[in-house]
Design a protein that fits this description.
Layout: H1 2-15, E1 29-34, H2 39-55, E2 61-66, H3 67-72, H4 75-79, E3 85-87, H5 95-100, E4 106-108, H6 116-119, E5 129-133, E6 135-136, H7 147-150, E7 155-156, H8 159-171, E8 176-180, E9 188-190, E10 196-198, H9 199-207, E11 214-218, H10 227-235, E12 242-244, H11 252-258, H12 264-277, E13 282-284, E14 286-289, H13 296-309, E15 315-318, H14 336-360, E16 365-373, E17 379-383, E18 389-393, E19 402-410, E20 415-419
Bound molecules: 5'-deoxyadenosine (5AD) and iron/sulfur cluster (SF4).
5'-deoxyadenosine (5AD) binds at residues 37-38, 144-145, 246, 248, 286, 288, 317, 319-320, 322.
Amino acid sequence: MNVYDGQRIAVMLEKHGLSQTENLEEADLIILNTCAVREKATNKVYSALGRIRRAKKTSALFGIVGCVARESGGDAFKRIPELNFVLGPQSYHKLPEIINNPDTKLLNIDLTGIEKFDELPQITKSPTLAYIPIQEGCNHCCTYCIVPYTRGREISRPFADVVKDTINAAKSGAIEICFLGQNVNGYKYTDENGKLYRLSDLIKEAAKLPEIQRIRFTSSYPTEMSDDLIEMFGTEPKLLPFLNMPIQSGSPRTLKRMNRPDDIEVYRNIVKKLKSVCPDIQISSDFIVGFPDESDEDFEETLNIAKEIKYINSYSFKYSPRPHTAAALMPNQISEQIKSVRLQRLDAQLNENQREFNMSCIGKEMVCLCEGDDKTKRHLVFRTPYMQQCIVEKPDGDIAPLQKIKITDANKASLRGEIIK
Ligand code: 5AD
Ligand code: SF4
């Protein structure tokens, strides 16, 4: 979401006559787009702001946008008095106001609407993989999560607007699209005639566009995996056989206190249904270890479910207490030391799953999307349908971004392959 927000901000500022620089010392305007989901990310923002304050031109305007801006509000100005603007995730379209009035301080952390999507200019040149937000905010109050506070209640964008953005992405270079939302499969929009649109309708509409070859979406909430959506994995060839559907923990006791669906059978059944319509599908998850009062037995259940479902491409985090969340006030917070040991053990399991899946790909042919050169510039980096990285010898001359690749080797981090001529 932040990558997408950054692209929209860049296009908006280009329309105001600004151009991008990677060089901090020559910048006239410096924007830090921020994430508040874990404390570490928030701390990084403030250390970066300190560094920027020392390195920037005296006349340069600087500020923060996104979730840390929303969380800190006016306090950010107290911590860093030189800041010029603090704009929450729903109000970064107000940035031009600070360019026009550089002597004021701009604070806007309202979450009242998503008119930013209407006010911002369209992206004119899409990357081959284009992100398209379809909803913002979240109504699932997981007790550890700051998102409902920073991004607000869930709002689905009008169907016609999302279709317009998808067509725009296709016409400006996108081959793959990823529908985005904190609770993407909860997308529901009723138009003026009372017609209800869901994520499956968006996928069908996007699949009609010849330019769009591949479709994915992230991130999904387990109990919103409706049957119409599950069926799409069997009927729509452009929908990639890969789903991010976080479970967070394998312990019903912990899930209950997280305020998440706590019947593990629910997760097993969704995976079973998905595999029955699409036998090749792979699932990825996010995990939190060291949630308050998590016992050794609770943690073992997380390890077991990671092994059983064979999640690939997953993310694991130490629980981080966040302001405005219920879990931060729960008793029996877990020590950093225990969290670190659990994280290491879970990562070992997730790495093993990944290694096993990567090895199983050797000899297979997959259509992959090119992301560009690797660091050495001698190889190209591709993404497989399962989001694995695949390294390929760079051929002479230009090639199309989508290529059929034969997988020749693998380790836990990536694959190697050859372009099939
Ligand atoms: N501590 C640790 N991880 C968190 N996440 C969300 N809130 C927290 C927190 N307080 C993780 C969840 C979520 C991902 C985006 O970030 O796993 O799925
Ligand atoms: Fe946060 Fe996701 Fe839970 Fe919503 S569903 S509260 S975004 S973890």
